UniProtKB/TrEMBL annotation:
Residues 136-169, 183-231 are annotated as: Disordered. GO terms for biological process: tRNA methylation. Its main location: cytoplasm. The keyword Methyltransferase applies. Residues 183-296 form the THUMP domain. Keywords: Cytoplasm, Methyltransferase, RNA-binding, Transferase, tRNA processing. This is THUM3 protein. It is found in: Cytoplasm. Transmembrane segments: none annotated. InterPro entries: RlmKL-like_Mtase, RlmKL-like_Mtase_CS, SAM-dependent_MTases_sf, THUMP_dom. Belongs to the methyltransferase superfamily.
Length: 507
């Protein structure tokens, strides 16, 4: 028994050591990888449930909110990219759960430099190469259908204002933001609040939750230039992105990215390039937790359905999390009465095609954008080689949220991103709008089995409206989320058996 116990302990230690290194032996000699994924803050458990369901892997939720980690065989990478709840993916090189930073800035940065030589880079880079080859095959297949740069520019002109265009670009896509900057070693993203997520939401209520700045390093740039002049074959270009959260560090993200990047360049003899890089090395520091990784996505996976943006376009990943929260069943009728550009119903129709989805909005411009997004999705489906679909189970209509053209008790689920009262509507108007919405949603929802999932940042107004509508709606669950730096909430409501009143006097 003692021998068995010792063997088990040794196996557990080996497993832990392998896990920390980011890679472990899969079945036989198969390469396996620990994948890190950024997800909408607050929906970590939803993402973990999807990974378990679709990949059969258990996930670990990071102390740094908005991230999960799970292990898969490297040949499962295509399925990993098809996950609906994750924004960005990276392969973990090594994770330090309790990294001890030295007090002086010079010593702490020197330790980060020295760390580069000690990290197990080989297998993570194999995973990156495999991911790259999959990406190239996919790009080759889709090349004919990709819009030109001019048409992309035209799509951007479809947005409300220049400010909305700015808001729609989030910090993960920092490569574009660095276009006018001289080649440098690193890029930094600092977080001053430990609870802030690195995935600023594209709901665009506020895009200035975090600031991205470029880490410049003249000496390393000169070194890379001289190296490029030698005419070496196949010199990889790279950049380092540092995401730092916590107030007990003696250095900035800028400095960490610069020094760590200089050591990476020296170790691999790669060329530093902030905009046209092949490899993006990630240095994630959250208090005493340090994770080094290699990015597997060039842009966020939530950019999958929307081509025509509005002032408050919701992320597809957040829309998926909201839909999953209400547990749609086959033949359910799902309504988004304030659909905006259609992120929620489009995600719903894509992922739950056995349900029937109805989208509506009172703004004709929003309905037009949503219709264009639906058309884009239909064209994309037609271009898929394996697709035999004739359409999607989704209709859109312009209507008044307080007077929906739907029969009483005819709807199973209501899912909607309610106006925050910042870009759309106002806080003052919400005091009348919210109770009217809840009353009308209660009327169309099936008593006893109907449910609603509603997102809002105007929590005080919503709580007041819900207390007035307590006879028809019961709050079952609340998920706290970060939407563009705003502290918002997703409420899961259950419809009671009470009959909804038709009157319009709420207070």
């Amino acid at each position: 028994e003692a021998a068995v116990a010792a063997a088990r302990a040794a196996a557990a230690m080996a497993e832990a050591a392998v896990g920390c290194a980011g890679l472990s032996p899969g079945p036989g000699a198969e390469l396996a990888a620990v994948i890190g994924a950024t997800v909408p803050t607050g929906f970590e458990l939803t993402a973990a449930a999807e990974v378990q369901e679709k990949l059969g892997s258990a996930s670990r939720i990071s102390r740094d909110r908005g991230k999960i980690y799970f292990e898969v065989p490297a040949d499962s990478l295509p399925q990993v990219h098809r996950l609906r709840s994750v924004d960005n993916l990276f392969v973990v090189v090594q994770e330090f759960k309790d990294y001890q930073f030295r007090e002086s800035k010079e010593d702490a940065l020197k330790d980060l430099e020295d760390l580069v030589k000690k990290l197990p880079w080989t297998n993570p880079l194999k995973v990156w190469e495999l991911n790259n080859s999959l990406k190239k095959r996919k790009t080759k297949r889709k090349k004919q259908n990709l819009p030109s740069a001019a048409s992309k520019e035209k799509l951007n002109d479809d947005r409300e204002e220049g400010a909305d265009q700015k808001d729609a670009v989030e910090q993960e896509d920092c490569a574009q933001n660095a276009a006018s900057v001289e080649p440098a070693i690193g890029q930094e993203t600092e977080e001053t609040q430990g609870g802030a997520s690195q995935n600023g939401e594209e709901d665009n209520e506020q895009s200035d939750a975090k600031e991205d700045t470029q880490a410049g390093c003249e000496s390393e740039s000169q070194a890379s230039d001289s190296q490029a002049g030698e005419g070496e074959a196949k010199v990889l270009k790279f950049r380092v992105t540092c995401n730092r959260a916590g107030d007990k560090h003696s250095f900035t993200s800028n400095e960490a990215a610069r020094d760590f990047g200089g050591a990476v360049q020296e170790h691999f003899q790669w060329k530093a390039d902030m905009t046209n890089f092949d490899v993006e090395v990630l240095l994630n520091i959250h208090n005493s937790e340090v994770v080094v990784g290699i990015a597997l996505t060039e842009e966020s996976l939530h950019r999958r359905n929307i081509t025509h943006f509005g002032p408050t376009t919701l992320r597809s990943t957040l829309a998926y999390g909201m839909l999953r929260l209400c547990d749609p069943q086959p033949t359910d009728i799902i309504v988004d009465p304030m659909c905006g550009t259609g992120a929620i119903p489009i995600e719903g129709a894509t992922e739950w095609p056995s349900c029937y989805h109805i989208a509506g909005d009172n703004n004709p411009q929003a309905v037009k954008r949503a219709a264009n997004n639906i058309s884009s999705l239909l064209r994309k489906n037609e271009n898929k080689e394996s697709s035999s679909s004739l359409g999607i189970p989704l209709d859109i209509i312009q209507w008044d949220i307080c007077n929906l053209p739907l029969r009483t008790g005819s709807v199973d689920i209501v899912v909607s991103d309610m106006p925050f009262g910042k870009r759309i509507g106002s806080k003052k108007k919400n005091w009348d709008l919210y109770p009217a919405c809840l009353m009308e949603m209660g009327r169309i929802c099936t008593p006893g089995t109907g449910r609603a999932v509603l997102l809002t940042q105007d929590k005080k107004c919503f709580a007041k409206a819900l207390s007035r509508m307590g006879h028809i709606w019961r709050k079952a669950h609340t998920v706290w989320v970060n939407v563009g730096g705003l502290h918002a909430a997703v409420y899961l409501l259950k419809r009671t058996w009470e009959r909804a009143e038709e009157k319009r006097s709420f207070w």
